[in-house]
Write a structure and sequence with these properties.
mainly alpha; two-stranded antiparallel sheet; 4 strands; 71% helix; globular; disordered C terminus
């Protein structure tokens, strides 16, 4: 599976199908009243279609079908039912999210639905094989542990994407950047013979990129449609699948090849770091809601994007800032993995300091300069 053009074709199909289907879905949502109405947490002045996940799932099915028709992807389909499992599990979370978009679903029911999707993944063999304990060892997961790791990973990824979906274009952009970074990393592992084949991870990652790229023109501020829980949960599942079948199946002997601890930890740390923004948001949400004594499913305005707006950034700039942090984290973890020579990470530190300064102090500096100009005039 070293043919880059094949992956790009399938990713392009995902983008085109999503771009075609999204306005159709928006039109149907308006006709049948599947709309998100403005409230304290939504800044939109009018009701907006919120079932964008319908276009996502349609694009996923079409993309997998196109890949099935391409000879270069035969190893992924011949005597292998994993992609069928992805479609089945994707259908479960998509329907769960769609019902929640139309008629609100309780938190226990959401968890039950995600667990059911994880069971589908396990049934079709879409699971980890290895688990890397940092600085300890690589463990081969037994049949008793595989279900637990699959459920926890899927719950974590779906909730991370669902929680970060709070501003126009935020979740779609972050997932597009993270999935693109992970596609580059996973394909590099495959090219260098460090990934068990056949592996569906790179294909699922590039399909995820295509879906997000096709959706972003309609979702960036001011959004014409929201992805809704149907889209957020589906993206979370696709991210969980691509990262688990790559990070959990990378050759345990990679340290012997590179001689560096980094490469031993990379399959575990790369998916975590490229998704650092939504994962941090989940961690802060757990801490915040635990201290407040409210349920984890209770909505609030304490997420990272809300905090950026409170710092004085507008919705568009807040989204771009979080995109940039995701891109920076992705570059930081990809550079050592892709570099053949000595790695110099100082440029990433300088960029991080500059971006951090812009994130925290832009509004104060801008206001001060504005006030100075007014006094001078």
């Amino acid at each position: 599976m070293k043919d880059l053009s094949g992956y790009l074709i399938v990713g392009g199909v995902a983008a085109v199908v999503t771009a075609i289907m999204t306005p159709i879905v928006a039109l149907l949502a308006r006709r049948f009243g599947f709309m998100a109405t403005p409230d304290a947490r939504r800044n939109h002045p009018e009701a907006t279609p919120d079932i964008g996940g319908v276009a996502f799932y349609f694009a996923l099915v079409v993309s997998v079908f196109v890949a099935w028709q391409m000879d270069r992807f035969d190893p992924l389909f011949k005597n292998n039912s994993e992609l069928v499992g992805v479609l089945v599990a994707g259908l479960v979370v998509f329907v769960l999210g769609l019902v929640d978009d139309i008629h609100e679903v309780s938190a226990p029911m959401k968890v039950t639905g995600v667990v059911l999707a994880a069971v589908a993944l396990i049934w079709f063999g879409v699971t980890m094989i290895y688990f890397r304990a940092p600085f300890v060892d690589v463990f081969v997961l037994s049949s008793d542990w595989i279900p637990l790791f699959t459920v926890l990973w899927l719950l974590g990824m779906t909730q991370a994407i669902n929680l970060i979906d709070g501003l126009d274009g935020l979740a779609a952009g972050i997932v597009a950047i993270a999935a693109a970074a992970f596609f580059v990393y996973s394909r590099n592992l495959g090219v260098n013979g460090l990934l068990s084949e056949p592996n569906i991870g790179p294909l699922v990652a590039i399909i995820t990129v295509g879906i997000c790229v096709g959706f972003l023109p309609f979702n960036f501020n001011p959004a014409k449609i929201f992805m809704g829980d149907s889209g957020a949960l589906l993206l979370g599942l696709l991210v969980a699948v691509s990262t688990s079948v790559v990070g959990g199946r990378a050759n345990p002997d990679t340290t012997n090849i590179s001689g560096q601890t980094y490469f031993f930890l990379a399959p575990l740390f790369i998916p975590i770091l490229v998704l650092g923004v939504p994962i941090l948001d989940v961690i802060f949400a757990i801490i915040r809601r635990t201290r407040s004594g409210v349920g984890f499913a209770t909505a609030d305005t304490g997420h990272l994007h809300h905090r950026l707006i409170k710092l004085g950034h507008g919705p568009r700039r807040a989204v771009v800032i979080l995109w940039l942090w995701t891109a920076l984290l992705s570059g930081f973890v990809l550079y050592p993995a892709l570099s053949d020579g000595p790695t110099n990470l100082w440029p990433f530190l300088f960029v991080a300091l500059a971006l951090g300064g812009f994130t925290l102090f832009h509004d104060k500096v801008w206001s001060r300069n504005k006030d100075s100009n007014q006094v001078a005039n």
